[in-house]
Design goal:
The chain is mainly alpha-helical and 275 residues long. It has one domain. Helices cover 63% and strands 5% of the residues. Strand 3 and strand 4 form a beta hairpin. The protein binds zinc ion.
Length: 275
């Protein structure tokens, strides 16, 4: 049940969290799912989430990471070309780990000091958002038809930042709802089955925000050699790319973190509105 920091077991839990996340991150590193810095990110996020939250929190985090990694691997050969445009390859690094799990880790720490139900549901909302975004991206890359840039109203090449597909959007919604159902099942604070729906919706909204920001204010570069848009400042061909649009310093990780925050804040607002 709600186990705050006052029970005096926090140090033991942090040590166990450190051990477990080092082990889990090491397995992911061996499988090629994380690079070295991503392993560090998994340890930082995992230790905070397990140490301050406990098992239900850690299982939620693992559900996101394992499902996202499995979908990244699924059809990876077909996706390779489209993914070249993205900032990063299949191996997740420190920036991605913190972008996806940082908000959740902060909520776990808050819960450690103040075990209020709102922090659990905000945690669920943030994980629903990053799950939806990752599922949508990975399934969308397998789409037969090119994705749609909603904000400019035209089809764009696969891998374009912020572009969406029907398949990806449906998958993202299902991923968010799955996190909602898991959050109800694992909840240390009670809550009816109906809570899965607002969590799923919060994740869906976070995903849409990610797409909107990715298509508008995220920093996008242009490679003169290949004549292609890219999220990387150095294109995969080796050519330094020049800024095309977006805000300096707002990269894909920043956009993902904002989407995670939006998912969390949506659930915070929901908790306030329904009392
Ligand atoms: Zn190039």
């Amino acid at each position: 049940m709600a186990s705050g920091i006052e029970n005096g077991q926090i140090v033991q839990r942090l040590i166990l969290g450190l051990a477990l996340s080092t082990l889990a991150g090491g397995i992911a590193f061996q499988l090629g799912l994380l690079d070295g810095s991503g392993w560090l990110g998994a340890v930082l996020v995992g230790t905070a989430v397990f140490g301050f939250g406990g098992w239900p929190w850690a299982v939620m985090l693992m559900a996101f990471f394992v499902s996202a990694s499995a979908l990244t691997r699924y059809g990876s050969r077909r996706k390779a070309e489209a993914a070249l445009g993205f900032a990063k390859g299949g191996r997740r690094d420190l920036g991605q780990a913190l972008a996806n799990g940082g908000i959740g880790a902060m909520l776990a720490i808050l819960w450690g000091f103040f075990p209020h139900p709102v922090f659990w549901w905000m945690f669920a909302g943030s994980l629903a958002a990053v799950t939806a975004d990752t599922w949508a991206t990975e399934v969308g890359l397998l789409s037969e038809r090119p994705p749609w840039d909603l904000w400019r109203g035209r089809r764009v090449p696969p891998g374009t930042s912020g572009a969406i597909t029907r398949e990806g959007t449906i998958a993202g919604g299902l991923g968010a709802l799955g996190i909602g159902l898991l959050a109800v099942g694992l909840s240390p604070v009670g809550g009816s089955l109906g809570m899965a729906l607002p969590v799923g919706l919060a994740g869906f909204l976070g995903m849409l925000l990610d797409s909107l920001l990715g298509a508008t204010v995220q920093r996008i570069y242009w490679c003169d050699r290949c004549g292609k848009e890219t999220e990387r400042s150095i294109h995969h061909c080796g050519q330094p790319a020049r800024p095309l649009r977006g805000w300096k310093g707002l990269n894909n990780d920043g956009v993902n973190a904002l989407a995670a925050l939006a998912g969390a804040l949506s659930m915070g607002l929901w908790m306030i509105v329904r009392g």
